[in-house]
Amino acid sequence: MTDHGVTGYSWDNLIMDYRVKIIWRIFMAVWDCVTAPPPKRADDGQTYGTDKSYWWPKMVSEIGAYKDWKCADLLDEVDKK
């Protein structure tokens, strides 16, 4: 990024932002699960959220990243402040 003129944004800042984004993406997967527009059903029955096949792979991926990047530690740091 510095090769393209970005200044004042360290590698540590980038890693912190990445970890925050991982946490945010978990909430987005939950949002997709429970609040997305209901899909059409042939029997006109009411359903809520998207199909599990859509949001579950995202959730699994994000939970793995949450663990790999130690995002719980980040939340603990925020809680201590």
Cα Rg:
18 Å
**Structure annotation, total helices:** 3
What is the string of helix and strand elements? HHH
Give the structural class. mainly alpha
Unreliable sequence segments: none
Beta-strand content: under 5%
| CA-CA gap between termini | 30 Å
Number of strands: 0
- Biggest beta-sheet profile: none
Helix fraction? 55-70%
- The geometry reads as extended
Summed over residues and divided by their number, the pLDDT gives a mean of 85
Sum up the structure in keywords.
mainly alpha, 81 residues, single chain
What does this structure look like?
With 81 residues, the chain is mainly α. The chain has a domain at 25-80. The protein is built from 3 helices and no strands. It has helices at residues 11-35, 52-68, 71-80. Helix 1 (11-35) packs antiparallel against helix 2 (52-68). The two termini are 30 Å apart. The mean pLDDT is 85.
Furnish the topology, listing elements before pairings:
Layout: H1 11-35, H2 52-68, H3 71-80
Helix pairs in contact: 1-2
Summarize the structure.
The protein is mainly α.
